[in-house]
Amino acid sequence: MENYMVSARKYRPSTFESVMGQKSLTVTLKNAIASHKLAHAYLFCGPRGVGKTTCARIFAKTINCLSLTEQGEACNVCESCVSFNEQRSYNIHELDAASNNSVDDIRSLTEQVRVPPQVGKYKVYIIDEVHMLSSSAFNAFLKTLEEPPAHAVFILATTEKYKILPTILSRCQIYDFNRITVEDMVSYLMYVASKERITAEAEALNVIALKADGGMRDALSIFDQVVSFTGGNVTYEGVIENLNVLDYEYYFRLTDYFLENKVSEVLLLFNEVLNKGFEGGYFITGLSSHFRDMLVSKDPITLPLLEVGASIRERYRTQAQRCPLPFLYHAIKLCNDCDMNYRTSSNKRLLIELTLIQLAQSTASGEDTPGSGRSPKQEIKPIFTLLTPVTEQPETIVPNSAAPQESVLPVKGGKEKTIPSMKELQTGFSIKRIQKDSEKEPPLQEEWTGVSEENQKFDENELNLYWQEYAKQLPLERKAIAMRMQ
């Protein structure tokens, strides 16, 4: 059986020209080699899988090459290059600081530095994950790093520059590696696919590049995984199924439902997403990114910020024209708030559903349509009848000994309504009054016809008018309270 080698190792760049996404750094290193202006210590820092260790190896091989090419690359023919390619070079030493982080390891390295190279000009020490060194190891390394022998070159690589002592940083030339763009990763994956005689769709490779999050090594590893799953025919459907990525189509359909205020369809589509095995946090994060992509698609100036394929880019542009800017701003804020509150929520599904309902109603015109999620409007029926305005009479104070008068107000319908006097509402009773009331015949209850059977509308002015007439009949001790309640 033929020995299989993963693509990340098989297609590792061997020249500065083949390094992807780090053009400015490779040009700087090539010019330094061509002008023979080499520093004794370099620090390569950046995210994972962007080429820090690869560039360190290429740089070490190039400075020891006995016959450089006109482009400033290693010849791969001389004894130094051949020994490096066959991994038997004694001039290049790689040290993993994660497992060799003690003071004794640094002292052993310091003793090796004194030995000059056998072939070539320099002995290069590549210390990977240098941030894993202990504080005492860093301090023991300071003197050697500041004044090494003329034939020694140190290349430190790290993903966490902030963990390195400032005294170490000041002794190195620092090179910050960038994340590799989606376009560069897609083009390199197309190159690898052509070399391996694999058919691959551009949209499928674009999904792989987005999943890699700026790391070429991750992209190649995912590519190998997808190739094994699809059997050499890399399609968009196969990639999203194997990587468990939510299809763009769901987000486009959701946005259409939001613009049409279809709450029921939105909730059903969200339930379909959950049934496919996607978590709510992953869904709301993707929805936030979708609205962000919609926002940058509205303006041709910000369109390059959209890192998707050509066909998906056109769909974004088409749908973005239908979305008003206030809706996009409001949608991004709602999704961001939901994402922040997701972990602490006790009912995570309800939190997301409330957010979706708010999004679906954010562009509503106020009219109730089927599926909008709003109940039919119900008019509030008035309690009192509509009054004709009457002129307000000056207030007169009636002494307690005088009999209270009853106020008569006109009402709609031509009849008058009498407001009962306060004497009948006073508390207290007597035996004489009970006997007197018992001798009277019970009054006949007359139906008040001032208010029609169907309730009629009234406004605030008419209500105030009734209240003022009623307040005039109150005793003096209760008028202060009535005035405050107006």
From TrEMBL:
Chain spans, region Disordered: 436-455
Gene Ontology cellular component list: DNA polymerase III complex
Nucleotidyltransferase among keywords: yes
EC number(s) from the headed UniProt entry: 2.7.7.7
Gene Ontology biological process terms from the UniProt entry: DNA-templated DNA replication
Enzyme class name: transferase
Keywords from the UniProt entry: ATP-binding, DNA-directed DNA polymerase, Metal-binding, Nucleotide-binding, Nucleotidyltransferase, Transferase, Zinc
Catalytic activity line of the entry: DNA(n) + a 2'-deoxyribonucleoside 5'-triphosphate = DNA(n+1) + diphosphate
Zinc recorded as keyword: yes
Residue span, AAA+ ATPase domain: 38-181
SMART domains: AAA
MF terms in GO: ATP binding; DNA binding; DNA-directed DNA polymerase activity; metal ion binding
Family annotation (InterPro entries): AAA+_ATPase, ClpA/B, DNA_pol3_clamp-load_cplx_C, DNA_pol_III_sug/sutau_N, DNA_Rep/Repair_Clamp_Loader, HLD_clamp_pol_III_gamma_tau, P-loop_NTPase
Annotated family: Belongs to the DnaX/STICHEL family.
NCBIfam families for this protein: dnaX_nterm, PRK05563.1, PRK14971.1
Name listed for the protein in its UniProt record: DNA-directed DNA polymerase
